[in-house]
Structures are given as structure tokens and as C-alpha cells.
Amino acid sequence: MERNNLPLNFHITEKDGCTIFSFPGRTKILSTSPLNGGLTTHLSHALNINCMNGAYECEMLGDTYEEDLAVHAKLLGIDPASCTALSTAAWTELCAVETVSFQDLSVTAAVTGGIDSNGMCPGDPSSYYEQEGKYEMLPPGTINVFLYINQNLTDPAMVRALMVCSEAKASAVSQLLLGSCYSEEPATGSGTDGTVIAADMDGAHTLTDASGHSKLGELIGKAVIAAVKQALLKQTAACGPRQFQVLVRTSRYGITAGTLWDFYTEYIDIFQKYHIIFSRASDLERTIQFHNRTSNLVLCTSLYLHLMDQLRWELIMEPEAIREGKRLMLYGLHWRNDLFLQNAYPDEAWQIPALKKFSLKDQLMFLMIFYFGLDQQPI
To answer: Residue 1: which pLDDT band, with cuts at 50, 70 and 90?
Structure first.
């Protein structure tokens, strides 16, 4: 299958679950791939390889990643010396393509992506250590960006374009509030992301600047952000509605139905004193799921989580964060009529000694369980 409505000298075709990007004209390419990576001017193709090989797990077809990509290229009928390639566990058929233009300048971004199992933030704990070219396979989850620019770029501009492209990808992921799988940080991508940037060497102009202030930088940012969001939507349904859930927002902090049940049983005497009674974990989970998309709860919890982020980033002090977080939930979470969580229980409930010792996270779990107990309170 071949895609239409693409710029001249740039073609996209699908074959055997992989995507082939072809450049009939002279093309300067900057690639993060181990196969003909770096800056080149002799390549005619870029490949997006589905590494699943029709199976449920990624399987290397060579002793190294570079050899694996070369084998895939040969299977697609392409000389490995004439191409660069990236691999992914995402379905390449779900590739999102976005083109933005200004006068005779156009930028096309083609993206596949899914980071639910491998999302990360720079500085997260690592997954492997390379030694003599050997390393273990990572969990599937990759955002691959293929960027085509219909004008020639100087070498420094190519590198700058890569910077802007990476920033745009991180921006798109963070705007969806996707969390890291390895820390409490918001994700900016996955640990296996790759990028290929191609510029038409026979374009009408040679551009020297791809900074964020330039029109080229603007177009790169717009194309990549739109394509990354569309790719994540296609692959994993990542979008506003999916993210508008309490348990989705709290997951990167390890706050789940299971950990809330553990917290409940640890402080069961306090909760039962105020008639918050869940006999089984399933009872609490059923209540959580009932309120999982309650807009008032999602909004207040999201604001509270941002306090936790700012505390971790050392932008605010812990006493103030705990005080204002408590105030946010007590006077922000609606109970009934014009009353809020604070009105649903005796004042002494908010002054118990244990509450004063809680961390910011513990306080949130404590107040969430009080909220989930509202249905048990007398009207």
C-alpha cells in the first residue's frame, strides 16, 4: 500500500508489516539508527521495522541490533547499504502522517508510537548496560519519528532540527500526562525512541537555521506534536478521555486500587470509626471504579498531584504543600448540595494525630478513602 498526497521526492509504502520511506532524489539524512546512522548523503530509503515478526515478543534476527536491521532490510528486498532503519513493536500500519507548510517550505512527520509499557523520563533508572556491543532487549514501546523536509539543510541545521524534533516529541507526550514506567516523573518518550530526518538536497533553498524561533523550527514542532499525538491515539488510545481517570492520573505514583486497599487495612480502625467500611478489596475497588471518571475528583486529584510534582522538583516546601493539599481536597471535593468533603465528617476527623505524620502522598490516599466513603455517610 502506498500513501498519497505526500511531498515530491518522498514516498511511503507498507510491506510485510513494515513501512518503507523512499527518497528518489538526492537526500541528506540524519539518523539515530545503528544501521547507517549519523549524517549521510547516499541513502535512498529509511525503514520502520516491526520487530515482533508475527510473534508476541520481539526476536532478534541478528547477533546485534545493526545486524538485525540489515536482515530485515534484505527481507524487504532493500540493500542494507542503501538504507537506515528503526524498529518498533507498534503496528506500523497505524503510522500517523502530518504535513505542515509555509510558502514553498513543507515538513512531513510520520510517526508510530506506544509507550504504555516503556514510557520514561530522562534520568530514570536504566534497563541495561551495553558492553562490547551486547545488551538485552527492552520491553516493547517506542516512538519512531521520520521527518522529511522538502528543502536542503546545512549540517548544523540538521542537528538543530533533531533537537527541535526531540523537544516536540517530549512536549506531545507530556501534554497527554503519560507517566514514566520507572519513576514518578511524567514521561517524555520511551527508552528506545528513534528519529530519522531527511532533507531534499535538490530543494529550491538551503536552510541554515532550524531553531525554535525559525519558521522551519515552528513547522517541525507543529508536525511532530500532531503526528506523535495521533500515533499514540491510534496505537494505545492515549488521548484526553482515556487520561481523564483518577487511577490513570495516580498510577505513576503507585496509587492503585490495590495500594489504596492496603492503606485502608493499615488504618482500618480510623476509617471504621467514621463509618467507612469495606469488607473486601473488591468492595473498595468497585467504589473507586464508580467514581473513577467523576470530574470533580479527577480535577482535584490532578491539582494535588501537581503539588507532589513541585515538591519533588524542590519548587515548594513540604509543610506548605501538605497544608494546601489538604485544603484543596477538603474544600474542593463535592459531597452534596453546597457541601464538601470537609462537611461530611466531624471536624475531629481532620485533626487526628496520624494525619499530622503523613507524607503528602499518604495524606492524598487518606483523603481519597474518606471521599470513597461518602456514600456510607448519613444524609
So the answer is: very low
Would you say residue 280 has pLDDT above 50? yes
Phi/psi region, residue 177 (left: phi>0; alpha: psi -120 to 50; beta: rest), is: left
Grid cell, residue 136, equals 538485552
C-alpha neighbours within 13 Å on the C-beta side of residue 210: 29
- DSSP per position, 222-288: HHHHHHHHHHHHHHH--SHHHH-SHHHHHGGGT--HHHHHHHHHHTHHHHHHTT---SSHHHHHHHH
The answer to whether the Cα torsion of 309, 143, 146, 109 is positive or negative is: negative
The arrangement of strands across the sheet holding 45-50 comes to: 11-15, 18-22, 45-50, 83-88
| pLDDT of the residue at 2 | 46
Instruction: Tell me what pLDDT residue 182 has.
Output: 87
Q: How far apart are CA 32 and CA 49, in angstroms?
A: 14
Cβ atoms within 10 Å of 234's Cβ, excluding its own: 19
Q: Do the bridges between strand 45-50 and strand 18-22 make them parallel or antiparallel, or are there none, so unpaired?
A: antiparallel
Contact between 142 and 113 (Cβ < 8 Å): yes
Phi, psi of 21 (to 5 degrees): -100, 120
Average pLDDT over residues 90-99: 90
Burial of 252 (0-12, 13-18, 19+ CB in 10 A): buried
Q: Is residue 197 exposed (0-12), middle (13-18) or buried (19+ Cβ within 10 Å)? A: buried
Helix axis angle for 281-291 and 360-372, nearest 10°, is 90
CA distance 205 to 105: 9
Q: Which DSSP letter does residue 350 get?
A: G
C-alpha distances out from residue 140 to 83, 89, 337, Å: 23, 5, 48
Range from 24-28, 46-50, 59-63 carrying the lowest mean pLDDT: 59-63
